[in-house]
Amino acid sequence: MLVGVVILITYVLAILANMLNIFFIIVDKRLHKPMYFLICNLAVVDILYASSSSPTMIGVLVAGINTISYVPCLVQMFAVHVGGTMETLALSAMAFDRLIAVSYPFQYHSYLTNVRTFVLICILWVVACGSVAVLLVALLPLPHCSSKLPYTYCDYAAIVRTTCVDLTHYFNMVSIMLFFIGFSTFILICLSYLYILFVVKLSSTNDKQKMGSTCLSHLMVVTGYYLPSFIRVVLTRFGVVLTLEASHGIMIGTILGPTFLNPVVYCFRTKEIKCKFFNIFKKVAIS
Fold first, then answer.
1. What is the pLDDT of residues 19-74, one digit of tens each?
2. Rounded CA separation 49/226 (Å)
3. pLDDT by residue (tens digit) across 188-245?
4. What's the pLDDT band for 285 if we cut at 50, 70, 90?
5. What is the dihedral of CA 179, 185, 187, 190, to 10 degrees?
6. Which of 130, 173, 183, 266 is the most buried (most CB within 10 A)?
7. Exposed/middle/buried for 244, CB within 10 Å: 0-12, 13-18, 19+?
8. How many DSSP H helices and E strands does the chain contain?
9. What Å distances lie between residue 25 and 31, 39, 239, 270, CA to CA?
10. Residue 107 contacts by C-beta under 8 Å, 6 or more apart in sequence?
11. pLDDT tens figures, 125-145
12. Which of helix, strand or coil describes residue 24?
């Protein structure tokens, strides 16, 4: 019950914070720039990612609702994995944006226009939906021998374990896809920041401070996303046996942690969004 209440509060705060970021960026024409479009896209991804699983977990842990129909379960699985995939793709796109901003500051707005940024975001969504659709198509024809899910929400691993088939092929398929998408995006982010560090090393002190400030927010968000996932993978890889509650806690952390951290970081680390937030807060306080 207590865990469910904590999840509920975190979920509500995460949704409100992400919606505020989206609202600030949409209504302020000064923020209609590539970097803010990418922040807005990340906020949309966070809302999808959190909303795909949190309501079910809250229903199970708070309200005691332990059933879900098959079709809604498949829809939830699709949304969960699209959100997770888009999270990595969005972060890699933002790392590329910071790379261009630091490496080519004077040509930045000619290289990354609003239209190109919008097209890039659309391509990322198509890639995410297409890759997850492959998993959905693989699941649909399989017969099911169990009606009980091992987790508090529907994902690929939970649903495939209810089938009557040999799971090796299906887990190998998803492992290859996850490795390709997760590893390639992580490498892109690492290479981007290695090059940024090289550029910063050759820059003046003032430029170093500016570059550090513009990249720190993104680094905090990347750490917040990859660290819980990395801990989960390491624990699984070394055969650490976790209780069901601990396993659920890590899974919840990998979803709700980043979706709550991201808007907070960009609200208080991005000058324009922070000023917008405090101006509204002052108006409300005065009235």
1. 988 988 898 888 888 988 999 999 999 999 999 888 887 777 777 777 788 888 88
2. 15
3. 998 988 888 887 776 666 666 666 666 788 888 888 888 887 877 777 666 666 666 6
4. low
5. -140
6. 266
7. exposed
8. 10, 0
9. 5, 9, 45, 12
10. none
11. 999 999 999 999 988 888 888
12. helix
What is the 3-class SS of 203-219, one letter each residue?
Answer: CCHHHHHHHHHHHHHHH
Q: Which residue is associated with the tokens 């799971």?
A: 167
C-alpha distances in Å from residue 71, one per residue of 31, 41, 59, 76, 208: 40, 27, 18, 9, 52
Residue with tokens 């391509």: 123
Residues in the chain: 287
Cβ neighbours of residue 37 closer than 8 Å, sequence gap 6 or more: 25, 114, 117, 118, 121
